[in-house]
């Protein structure tokens, strides 16, 4: 049974703003932007910045959650890369200070439709909507036990994989039908 305990995100984590820096192709630090993230962080084609003292103090840590503060996709992803990286101003970096929640669970929670609706109702601007830090800090997070969090994340991962496999099956069936039909008219 999942507990009903809720904690404000600001009491679970530190919420940091991403940094602005001019990119440099010779830089040794990955400069992550929203285009570099989907369900995972992909550093291969990301821009680079030089390792300055400012960049050094803003380096991402294992388990940090990148949350897109600009736009309408409300992207969230857990940083698990080994490469030195910083987040651009397109992100809030959510760094857990408490061990009562896992980064994967929090990331899953931030992706839920009801939470996306919460952020949509709290965004400002129209050309490039953005979410202010207090809206993120004051989000209430239900915190089940760590075991329950692991189960939730595992089921969500399996459900996503099932959808991917079903889509692959549909596409293969369509290809077979198309090939059979083309063979009929040859």
Structural summary, described in words:
- The termini are far apart.
- The protein has 186 residues and is an alpha+beta fold.
- It has six helices and eleven strands.
- Helix content is 39%, strand content 20%.
- Strands 2-8-5-6 form a four-stranded antiparallel beta sheet.
- It has helices spanning 9-12, 53-57, 103-110, 113-122, 133-137, 146-185, and strands at residues 6-8, 13-17, 29-32, 47-49, 65-68, 76-78, 85-87, 91-96, 123-124, 130-131, 140-142.
- The longest helix has 40 residues, at 146-185.
- GO terms for molecular function: endonuclease activity.
- This is Restriction endonuclease subunit S.
- Residues 23-169 form the Type I restriction modification DNA specificity domain.
